[in-house]
């Protein structure tokens, strides 16, 4: 059974492992070197009730996480957040990413955020489709802003504005 719940600091090693899998094997994140749990502790601590981290747990295994992170420390951006979602290799394509995104977007809505941004590498059509189906629109494309695995990469910016 799939349980989606708020992350605790005890989840951080599993969250970091899933992130590092994506760092090393995908261009979904533009980090190139794996992160230590210590490095990710400051990321974890930068989240709060308005900026949740949720985890998906199946049969005692943490199989994915999603977060809403501050877009900027400049206060006029306070109601804007950036979404991230990562599913453990071997558990993708089974609906968990969609459920985690729905859950974390609902939390952002309850917390009174106004808009959610997402940066998605060109070619990650699964993620782009998923965002489109959850109400994200296309803002634009930043051309050739990244280089990973020897390829220059474009980044799509997508945005959801909560309707209230
Ligand atoms: C992108 C990611 C988060 C999606 O999560 P997931 O659990 O694999 O996706 P889901 O099973 O919930 O599927 C969501 C949608 O993706 C699409 N999709 C799923 N599997 C797919 C596949 N094999 N090929 C193409 N599209 C696919 C479908 O449109 C699906 O929508 P549906 O619910 O209408 O069928 C996940 O694959 C992942 O962690 N990828 C690596 C890291 C990453 O890209 N993170 C996002 C950074 S922006």
Overall description:
By secondary structure, the protein is of the alpha+beta class. Strand 4, helix 3 and strand 5 form a beta-alpha-beta unit. It has a single domain, classed as 3-Layer(aba) Sandwich (Aminopeptidase). The mean pLDDT is 98. Strands 1-2-3-4-5-7-6 form a seven-stranded mixed sheet, sandwiched between helices. Bound molecules: coenzyme A.
Please report which band the strand proportion falls in: under 5%, 5-15%, 15-25%, 25-35%, 35-45% or over 45%: 35-45%
Mean pLDDT: 98
Intertermini distance: 32 Å
Gyration radius, in Å: 15 Å
User: CATH topology, anyone?
Assistant: Aminopeptidase
- Number of helical regions: 4
How are the strands ordered across the major sheet?
A: 1-2-3-4-5-7-6
Determine the CATH superfamily. Gcn5-related N-acetyltransferase (GNAT)
Strand/helix succession: EHHEEEHEHEE
Class inferred from helices and paired strands: alpha+beta
Poorly predicted runs of 5 or more residues: none
CATH class categorisation: Alpha Beta
Q: Count the strands?
A: 7
Shape: globular
Count of domain modules:
1
Amount of helix: 25-40%
The CATH architecture category equals 3-Layer(aba) Sandwich
Q: What small molecules are bound in this structure?
A: coenzyme A
